[in-house]
Amino acid sequence: MTEKIVFDNGSIASKLLQDELKDAKVVKVSGTNLLENFTQFDSKKQDQRIYLPFTSDQLIANNEQIRKDIQKVEGVGFKNQVVLPYEGDDEKTIKYRAKRAGLIKDGEQNTLKQPTSEIKDEDNSKPYKTVNTYNTKVSDL
After folding, report:
1. Contact predicate 7/52, CB 8 Å
2. Where does the pLDDT of residue 18 fall: very low under 50, low under 70, confident under 90, or very high at 90 and above?
3. Pick from 31, 128, 134, 135: most CB atoms within 10 A?
4. Which residues have C-beta within 8 Å of that of residue 68, sequence separation ≥ 6?
5. Strand 3-8 with 25-28, pairing
6. Using CB atoms within 10 A of its CB, is residue 34 exposed (0-12), middle (13-18) or buried (19+)?
7. What residues pair up with 3 in beta bridges, in sequence order?
């Protein structure tokens, strides 16, 4: 039988994953280095699946850093052992499923934790300039 291991990074997604995989072993992780967290596992055990609670929003927001970290982990011997069950789900879907499972309440503002450094989008300006062409001469542009 395949051993199931869930990474618990304290996020709603990891709580939901623990609820869905009740027979899985839960491993608390700390820090942002995914490769360091994998040192506690034996890569030669082919009958284990390690479930990571990363959503599509997290994979996109970190400019593929998480995917690069996963590729490094697979490169040291964990090929075909890493599972991303929420890879196609966004943050809203995970929150909805967690509410339905009774893991969070309606008023709770708990957000999904980012496993690596948080990227802030502070520049909301448009990358282009809007020009009104109504009654405008080419020489005015």
Report:
1. yes
2. very high
3. 31
4. none
5. parallel
6. buried
7. 48
Q: What's the CA dihedral at 64, 68, 70, 73 to 10 degrees?
A: -170
Q: Biggest alpha carbon distance in the chain? A: 75
Model confidence, pTM: 0.70
Q: What is the pLDDT of residues 44-62, one digit of tens each?
A: 888 899 999 998 888 888 7
What is the token pair recorded at 11? Answer: 């996020």
Q: Is 110 exposed, middle or buried (0-12, 13-18, 19+ CB in 10 A)?
A: middle
pLDDT digit string, tens, across residues 61-78: 877 788 888 899 989 888
Read off the tokens for 133: 């062409």
Identify the helix (H) or strand (E) that includes residue 4: strand 3-8
If you count them, how many residues does the chain have?
141
Q: Are 14 and 7 in contact (CB under 8 A)?
A: yes
State the Cα–Cα distance between residues 71 and 91, nearest whole angstrom: 23
| Amino acid residing at 23 | D
